[in-house]
Amino acid sequence: MIYGFIDEHKDRTEGGRRRWGVESICRVLCQQGIKIAPATYHAAKTRPPSARAVRDEELKPVIAKVHADNYGVYGARKMQAALRREPEPVVIGRDQTARLMRELGLQGVRRGKPRRTTVADETSPRPADLVDRDFHAERPDQLWVVDLTYIRTWVGFAYLALVIDVFARRIVGWALTTHLRTALPLEALGLAIWTRHRAGVTSLDALIHHGDRGSQYLSIKHTERLAEAGALPSVGSRGDSYDNALAESTIGQIKAELIYRRGPWRTIEQLEFALFEYLD
Predict the structure, then answer these.
(1) Global confidence as pTM
(2) Which residues contact 250 (CB under 8 A, 6 or more apart)?
């Protein structure tokens, strides 16, 4: 910072004559309590760059490219993980990643406040809450969490249903429609079951399927489909968003990273294609 100040002022002229030199600037700085000698400045300017500085310059274009390739939404934590997934993995610490992103003017996207779209069905019998806010799993297909959200387009609202495997934090099933009927979460659930069967999982017995009190998830058709798969339904308590926090957090991430940044969405087909690309 001191060297930059000297660089900025040393060649200033006044009336055609140079007003300040390195020696005079250093003398004034010393009078203000900032001890720096002209020899120190000249040594710093002629010193070869350190190994850290060289490495930083090598990493900056890589970080800029990975950030741009991922919608320009990654913060330091996700950027560090993304760098390690590159064809030529880049091993870098979290603090160094954050520092280089600051120097490049890059930052992660900030999320807005999520909204709920499901409506509780007070007349249907409700399953117990088998999760109790403990969103942890020791293996795949132990706990799935689900939720719905809405997305505005030029031709009306679209509705997105998600099925998320808690162990891998992976979206295993999703569906996009223009309605909020039971067919929406049923389609997402069907895709999730098919995805796991394609991966060689022949049984989903004892899988916990956790959602909120929305009527779509408490419908007879949805309950029967869970029973066919061997899954156990679980429902959070009334008016408590924390009981499905992981699913709502994932929806907030999708909206912050894709929906709000890439919109406006003209058609449902355009939105669906973008979701395919993003989720892949």
Answers:
(1) 0.61
(2) 147, 162, 164, 169, 171
CA distance 273 to 11: 56
Sign of CA dihedral 71, 76, 77, 81: positive
pLDDT at residue 201, rounded to an integer: 86
Residue 136 lies in a domain: no
Domain membership flag for residue 100:
yes
Q: What's the pLDDT tens digit per position in 122-161?
A: 555 667 778 777 888 899 999 999 999 999 999 999 999 9
Query: Under 8 Å CB-to-CB from 223, ≥6 apart: which residues?
Result: 233
Are 156 and 265 in a shared domain?
A: yes
Based on the fold, state whether residues 71 and 172 are members of the same structural domain.
no
**∠ Cα 259 260 261 (to 5°):** 95
How many domains is the chain built from? Answer: 3
